[in-house]
Amino acid sequence: MIQWHRFPISTPFIAACICILTLASCNWWQKPTWFSFVEHELAVKIDMQLEVSDTSDTPVIFELQKIDLESQQFAELIPDLSIVYAKAFTPFAVEFLKAHPDVITTVSDYRPFEPYFKKVGIANVNWSFVHEKIQEAEEKNFQTKELELPKNTIGWIITALDFETREKLGFLIFSVSTTDPYGNIHINAIGFTPVAQRRGLGKRIMSSLFRFLPDISRIYLRVLEANTAARKAYHSYGFRQYTPERMPEKRDDYDPYSLYLEYKTDQSNVLQKIAAIFEDLA
Prior knowledge:
Layout: H1 11-25, H2 34-43, E1 49-53, E2 59-66, H3 72-75, H4 78-99, H5 103-106, H6 114-118, H7 127-147, E3 153-162, E4 168-177, E5 184-192, H8 201-207, H9 209-212, E6 218-224, H10 228-237, E7 240-241, E8 258-264, H11 270-275, E9 279-281
Parallel strand pairs: 5-6
Antiparallel strand pairs: 1-2, 1-9, 2-3, 3-4, 4-5, 6-8, 7-8
């Protein structure tokens, strides 16, 4: 005859079992998505500042902010950032227009300037006037072009500040979407005012990504093919051209003039090495 023995089961034991079953149903042991990891990791680093010296040993600060158009604090930054954006991109926009005058009919950003060409012809264009008008347009359109991100995407901006005056010298905007593989980020825009250029700040601000987010494994960006200076710089950092497996969902008029570049941490450590020299500011 089989005898059954009953063992007393304590209330804590039952509670522990329920807890385990609950955690199991939530897949608690699984690695968090990259999107949620980045959001959590950078949430505690908002307003974090890093100090680094440029090529002439002038100290510069890099400060991290989340792009939040509903935040009053971030909204107060937009006017100054718009001016920096316009100063950074207008000179190249003018050169791009000179090299590709056909874009006044094919690229939406340049269509407003078509009247300045149509009346006098490309040989007689008043480029100083065009420069002024493009700078006004870039400043006005900064928010819609760079800060209004696609659905299921979050973004941050790293602002470069003069150590002494806190004047804004440039910025880098990067983002992550819910569909990005673990470790991937996208650089949406990077630019510096004319006085801050040729000081090595582009390489340094890209390197700062690895201080804010060490788990990065791949960085993607797009550059206009005509921007030879930027392409040369990115190549020196370790970026290489690649063909996307699928084109971005949000394609635009610049695609025929663009190249896609990527930085892989298993193939280059240029940016990681520079990140190691940054100093955290309390």
